[in-house]
Amino acid sequence: MGKKEFYTEKVIFLTKCMLAAYILTAGLLLLLAFMLYRFGLSEKVVSLCIIGIYIAVTFAAGVLAGKRAPSRKFLWGLAMGTAYYVILVIVSLIVNRGLQDVAGNMVTVFFLCAGSGMLGGMIS
To answer: Is the torsion defined by CA of 107, 61, 15, 27 positive or negative?
Structure first.
C-alpha cells in the first residue's frame, strides 16, 4: 500500500469519526430539547448540559480515533477535538452571521473540545 492510499484511508476514517460525533451530538441535543420541553429546565442547566455534550462527544471521538492509531494516540484525539471545534465554530458563524454571540466562549470551548478529545485518545 502506497502513501497515497494510506493517507486516503486515514482521511476517510477521520471523516467517519466526525460524522459519528455529530450524529451523537444531534441525538443528545434532541434529548436535551425534550427534557427542556418536558421539565422546563433553567438556562443555566441547559448551558451546563450543552458543555457536557461537547465534552462527552469529543471524548468519544478521541477514543475512536485513538483505537485506530498505531502510535501517538493522544495527537489523534487532539486532532478530533480540534476538528470538532472548527466545524462547530464554522456552523455557529453561519447561523449567527457574525462573531457577536460566539466570541464570548470560543477559547473555553476550544480547550474543552481539544482537551477531552486528547484525553479520549490517551485512554484508548
So the answer is: negative
pLDDT at position 5 is 79
- pLDDT, tens digit (0-9, with 9 covering 90-100), for 58-107: 999 999 998 888 888 999 999 999 999 999 989 888 887 777 666 678 88
| Among 18, 1, 10, 4, residue whose Cα is nearest residue 82 | 18
**Could you give the maximum distance between any two Cα atoms of the chain, in Å?**
56
CA distance 54 to 1: 36
Q: How far apart are CA 39 and CA 80, in angstroms?
A: 33
